[in-house]
Amino acid sequence: MDILNDPDALTRALKGHLILGSFAFLLLQIIQVVILIIPGGVTTVVGFMAFGPILGFILNYVGIVIGSIILFLLTRRYGKPFIMLFIDEQTYAKYEEKLASSTYETVFALNMASPISPADILVMITGLSKMSFKRFLYIILLCKPISIVAFSYFWIYGGQFIRSLL
Question: Any transmembrane segments, and where (predicted)?
């Protein structure tokens, strides 16, 4: 499990194996969305580092979308007890409050586009909402590319950019 917290080690493990590595990475991305204990930020960056910007983006996007769909549907099926496996009551109450807002759909879309939002928690909370699956999928498909690219490029190049400003 330590390899999941070490982007360099994970990149080395996947990089030399295009087909098997791609499949393993795609599976890892799906799992990291559904099981919130795996750090998604690390795996997202690894996709770009191990497979380059195009294949890395595609694998990230497909894995995160599939994982988000699974997470949404699991929450629809099992409700609050499923969410409570991953978050505490206080966190749940904070997000549940937002569901009643008339602007929740907009807030959800903006968070899905943001590289620094608790996306997986919001996907679960949205599974409890009245949002249709079709609308959920539309928002995920449209907004996730923005957060994937922004997070990965900031993580990979952000430090260099900040140093150049100093």
Answer: 18-38, 50-74, 136-156
Distance (Å, rounded) from C-alpha 80 to C-alpha 46?
32
On whether the CB atoms of residues 42 and 7 are closer than 8 A, the answer is yes
Per-residue three-class SS string for 81-110 = HHHCCCCCHHHHHHHHHHHCCCCHHHHHHH
**Residues 118, 76, 59, 30: is their CA dihedral positive or negative?**
positive
The domain ranges of the chain are: 2-165
Q: Does residue 117 contact residue 29 with C-beta atoms inside 8 Å?
A: no
61 pLDDT above the threshold of 90: yes
Q: pLDDT over 90 for what percent of the chain?
A: 54
| 34 close to 67: Cβ distance less than 8 angstroms | yes
